[in-house]
Amino acid sequence: MESPALALQRHFLTGSSCFSPKPSLSLRLPAAIVRMSLREDGPSVSVVGVTGAVGQEFLSVLSDRSFPYRSIRMLASKRSAGKHLTFDGRDYVVEELTPDSFDGVDIALFSAGGSISKLFAPIAVEKGTIVVDNSSAFRMDENVPLVIPEVNPEAMVHVKLGCGKGALIANPNCSTIICLMAATPLHRRSKVKRMVVSTYQAASGAGAAAMEELEQQTREVLEGKEPTCKIFKQQYAFNLFSHNAPVLSNGYNEEEMKLVKETRKIWNDMNVKVTATCIRVPVMRAHAESVNLQFENPLDEDTAKDILGECPGCGVGRIRRDVSQDGDYGLDIFVCGDQIRKGAALNAVQIAEMLL
Question: Which Gene3D superfamilies does the protein's record reference (predicted)?
Fold first, then answer.
């Protein structure tokens, strides 16, 4: 009988894309198998914003999933350059991000903010790099695929790795990813006419500094001190408030409108009605969302549970019929997801895996 390690190696070495390793989207190594990430026939990778919360999660996910690579570059701001990071048992020095950082790089994972992406992502693409960008900079560009691998992998079928042509792929907003992971399988079955989303978003969505400030504020409030308010400009510990994204002329904030616009693009349906209310809650990590779905065709609770129970990446939680609607034309679902993991780093790495 073929050993697990040999089976995995055979799996990596078969395939017809430009690069030979072709791991399954959901591949995970048993702990007993020696990692085979560092491979001469793998792509060269760079991580932009490597010292941030999502950048660090990029490394964790790459390691956990034994993503094959022949080299990896750790890139960050000038302030972080020179720091040492350990990845897969090897020591790396963080390099300053410059226009020359993408020479010879096949895949670049970006999580350094929209302004950095706008400046450096086009440079990387021009050099032949495929960029997977975690910022909002290019999400609504009609020429840039906005991808959740379990939802709309067909959006990036034209992007090929190792063929000398760069490309840009956008990672959706964390709230959109978490919502659509659960809503899409139901949408495929009965078509969603209208979706109402209320989000409860953790500090992780605002990065490592926000998580640190929540921890600091919690200590300060418990000790009877005035809380330090630098990231959100108001007390976050033991408090709830509307998401801190800028409010637009229509009264919605940018985070709420991301859910509206990104859902329509990912589902390729400009007519689906979506409304959202986004709230910050004082927890470290993972967002929760209350999602009300109205369908064109009936869909009962038991069928919905069966559908979601068979979907990769989903576990069945709370599902109930919307009693405000007649028949089985509405469902209420409560969705939770790790914002840094699936809402950012894991989704980006899954996109990269689809290129192999």
Answer: Dihydrodipicolinate Reductase, domain 2, NAD(P)-binding Rossmann-like Domain
